[in-house]
Amino acid sequence: MTTTVEKETATSASPRHAASDKSRSEARLGWFLAGPAFAVMLLVTAYPILQAFYESLFDYRLTDPANRSFTGLTNYGVILTDSVWWDAFGVTVLITVVTVAVELVLGFALALVMVQALKALRPVLRAAILIPYAVITVVSAFAWQFAFAPDSGFVNSWFSFAGLAPDTDWFGSPGSAIFVICLAEIWKTTPFISLLLLAGLAQVPEVLQEAAKVDGATWWQRMRKVTIPNMKAAIMVALLFRTLDAFRVFDSVYVMTAGANGTEVLSFLAYRQTIARLEIGLGSAVSVLLFVSVVLICALFIKGFKVDLSQARGE
Amino acid sequence: MAAIEMSHIVKRYGDGFPAVNDVSLDIADGEFMILVGPSGCGKSTLLRMIVGLEDITSGDMVIGGTRVNDKAPRERNLSMVFQNYALYPHLTVYENIAFPLRLAKVPDAEVKAKVEQSANILELHEHLQRKPANLSGGQRQRVAMGRAIVRDADAFLFDEPLSNLDAKLRGQMRAEIARLQRRLGITTVYVTHDQTEAMTLGDRVCVLKKGVIQQVASPRELYEQPTNLFVAGFIGSPPMNFLPASASNGKLDTPFGTIQLDEARAQQVGDRDLVLVGVRPEMFEDASLVDEALRDKGARFTAQVDVTEWLGDSQYAYLPYESSPEAAAKLKELAQELDGDQLRTQAIVSIDSTSRIREGQEAEFWFDTRKIHVFDPQSGDNLTRDAEAGAELTRQATEDRKAQVERARATASA
Amino acid sequence: MSTREKVGWGIGGLLIIIYCLFPIAWIVSLSFKSSSDISNGEFLPTSATSENYATILTGDAAELFLPALRNSFGICLIATALACLLAMFAAYAIARLDFPGKKIILSTALAVAIFPVISIVTPLFNLWREIGLYDTWPGLILPYLSLTLPISIWTLSAFFREIPWEMEQAAQVDGATPWQAFRKVIVPLAAPGVFTTAIIAFFLAWNDFVYGISLTSTSASRPVPAALGLFTGASQFESPTGPIAAAAVIVTIPVVVLVLIFQRRIVAGLTNGAVKG
Questions:
Q1: Three-class SS of residue B123?
Q2: Are B87 and B217 members of one domain?
Q3: What is the interface pTM, i.e. ipTM, of the complex?
Q4: Residue C240 sits at the chain A interface (C-beta within 8 Å)
Q5: Do the beta carbons of residue B130 and residue B92 sit within 8 Å?
């Protein structure tokens, strides 16, 4: 009874108040529904990274927990002056740049073929292109490793006409090992890029193509002056996601070379410090540095290339 | 069935902007009421407040004698046809129509009977087992109507139901809705921006502008006795011409010559520097084709013809004229209010389709001065409105409608 | 399009199919090679044998592989279900309600999606040891939420935004309570989106390797990718190439089946959310 009376006075006496009440209850419901997901996300990422930052300030070995001592930023100093870090950094950047560049070009070609392909072929193509995406990275890494390995592969014998010795050890030297790693990464992730680009292509209205044709543009000119500018947002988003993803490369390296022969990447370095050598302090510092690198790349893309992430939200 | 009474309804959004401002409107039981106006005039908001999809900021909404402000939509027993039909894509046509009955837990046999009855009325029988995605626009529209009529709602609400159909279908569905409403005799509120729908369907039409009611009257009253510039300009197609003029001693000095007003009107208008003279296109005629008997009931003038449009049954001529900057600015403002875009000051006149007047010529025209209206450009008020004559038109319309509804019911029950 | 162009694009399509399937065909072929045949330097086995499958399903490696398979299925399904449940509520709120912080939630999801997993794994490794979650199912399910939750939120909010909410209002006018409107109209409309999201989230969890090798130590919770990566140490005289290939084929079968059945939906889901999968 009292509530109805209150409600009446609220609506008639001060309508503004009622409106803000409504938006407040909507806000409450919103956080009630989205809150748990938000909390879990923070719990599994923000908390660990803060923890990692804290640990990185200590000289701390799991094999020798008694001698844990606060050393401030010493760990960072150690890492950033060590060539191991910079070598891994260089390899990571190399893999990222090579794979992303090749994937972008190849992915665009794949998307173009899918747009043009016959209707009958399209479902088959779509299914085929999803398979590398869905296959476990470790499986793809094994497949490529076994293909190139001298004792189990066919590559050496297939390409013997090109002067390849049957016992060529692809994983023995940095250059060829990184080449195979890149190959596996490119195979696995190009389809994803091509799907994003395909969606971008579909967003360019057909009438623009027709208008450009009437205006006398060649296929190449239409591509360069109409299609690509209009799907720039999709390209940038694809590029951003793939770059960040490539920068975290780990699975393929672990399987193929275990970081040996100059193929150590940043993720592997962090893993080796913590999980294998139990150097928690040093490993945490590497983790934090890796995280900072990713944030910097992201900031560079968003500020530098003006990537509009609302595009990614499908808004 | 129920009457809908609204008193001092206000809808204010978070930013304080009143989308609907102090609207009081009584809709009688069984009446077909049209809400019309340019986009953003608040007509849809008002409809959604009736049905309960929008909260009412202040004022009272009374349906069938009960205040419903705080009732949820489902407690109001109204049915609504949405602009995009809002058919449930996962249900067949049959289940779409049956949906309200299923919610009310009506027994299967009764559901079947009622759905089939609705399907018969709307000729949907052969589509009952199809999904909405496989229907044409007109069929979807009929399914949406089927869902509205299947239960005994107190009133029907339509939110621009025909705006997604092409012109031909729209005409057919318009007639269909009129027939259905007359047959069922149910209170109906219909939102549209299309004035043909407003004029043909409604018992009364409520013209809204920026959330405020301008005039509520029968279509004929709106047409012949508009209360202000906005209503006069909104109702009628092609729209009424507004000629800038100065008034003195019962004479109007317009770009198309001088008009002598009768004594009553001369008094109403008085002396003014700027008035707008409203002349509907069909009040004009090619001077050479005017009936002898009519000739001295109007005024003659010559004008340069810019463009003519011959449509078979009728013909329009566009006559440009010079106007003062003040008058031009006023006309531009009015055009914007009406969702239009005024490029140049010109009059559109309707002439007989046999007229030999062609574009580029200087020609002589005649127009009937008895039915012109004179408007105050500042307030927009119609200075020459005859309220009594207007009320009489609406009274007649109400009587005609009553007789129609009775006839329709008699035929339906026979 | 002229016939020549058609043929050209057709060949292009064929090349794509070969490109996509070639490594899969290779690992399948390898899995049927006998241990002496592995080093034959050819793509195909000299004579097909199922001995590798026998090794991992009933033989020496079975005690490594089968528990891993069970762990993978169990952990991934639970992580997917949890992510979808949490994401469903969050995405509904994001798509339907207007509340401050919406942007923050979406940005957080994005940030979590691009987070380097290895940066999280170090502190988790430490923490899990302290609180006893190391080498347990929950110890993997929780971090897997960092993989599955962001993409679920993004994909689902994209799907939910496309639901014509006018339907819900129509249902209310038709006499439905909010709960009825949700159950009879919104759930059937949202179900395909939730399902698609679940598949994509499952792929991500199924693909995990870093958490798998870092946060487990025994077959109590080690998932398949990690088990594969650590296979090398199996006490056998020859290198376990054949058994690894066979195991790889088996773990690939579920995802290939999902892809074949739901390809159209998966593509829609991936490009809708447009987040890395």
A1: coil
A2: yes
A3: 0.86
A4: no
A5: yes
* The CATH fold of domain A70-312: MetI-like fold (1.10.3720)
In this structure, the answer to whether residues B316 and B263 fall within a common structural domain is: yes
Q: How many domains does chain B have?
A: 2
d(CA B378, CA B388): 24
Residue span of the structural domain in which C70 resides: 62-273
**Cβ contact A134–C100 (<8 Å):** no
- B14–C contact, CB cutoff 8 A: no
Integer angstrom CA distances of residue B389 from B380, B393, B398: 20, 6, 14
**CA distance linking residue C149 with residue C90, whole number of Å:** 10
Q: Which two tokens stand for residue C71?
A: 């762990």
Tokens, residue C72: 């993978």
Do B198 and B325 fall into the same domain?
no
Which of the residue ranges A55-59, B288-292, C20-24, C247-251 would you say has the lowest mean pLDDT? A55-59
With CB atoms and an 8 Å threshold, state whether B53 touches C189: no
CB atoms near residue B179 (< 10 Å) = 12
Of C123, C241, C274, the CB nearest to A55: C123
User: Range(s) for CATH 1.10.3720.10 in chain A?
Assistant: 70-312
Residue C95 · residue C205 · CB < 8 Å: no
| Number of structural domains chain C divides into | 1
Going by pLDDT thresholds of 50, 70 and 90, the confidence category of residue A22 is low
Short-list B223, B301, B317, B224, CA closest to B259: B301
Together in a domain, B215 and B97: yes
Q: What angle do CA B62, B67, B70 make, to 5 degrees?
A: 120
Contact by Cβ (8 Å): A166, A160: yes
Tokens of A42: 């923070």
All chains having 3 or more CB pairs closer than 8 angstroms to chain A: B, C
- Buried/exposed C36-75: b ≥16 CB within 10 Å, e otherwise: ebbeebebebeeebeebbebbbeeebeebbebbbebbbeb
Distances (CA, A) of A240 to A303, B45, C153, C227: 12, 43, 19, 31
Query: How many whole angstroms separate alpha carbon C258 and alpha carbon B191?
Result: 48
Rounded Cα distance, B21 and B191, in Å = 17
> Residue C186 domain-assigned?
yes
pLDDT bucket at C232, cuts 50 / 70 / 90: low
| Residue C3 domain flag | no
CATH number at residue C128: 1.10.3720.10
Three-state DSSP at A115 gives helix
Please indicate, yes or no, if residue C261 is contained in any of the structural domains.
Answer: yes
Whether residue B176 sits in one domain with residue B117: yes
Is residue C123 assigned to a domain?
yes
Helix %, strand %, coil % of chain B (to 5): 35, 30, 35
Domain of residue B153 covers: 4-224
pLDDT tens-digit map of C9-63:
888 888 888 888 888 888 888 888 887 777 777 778 777 788 888 777 887 777 7
Nearest to C256 among A40, A131, A313 (CB): A131
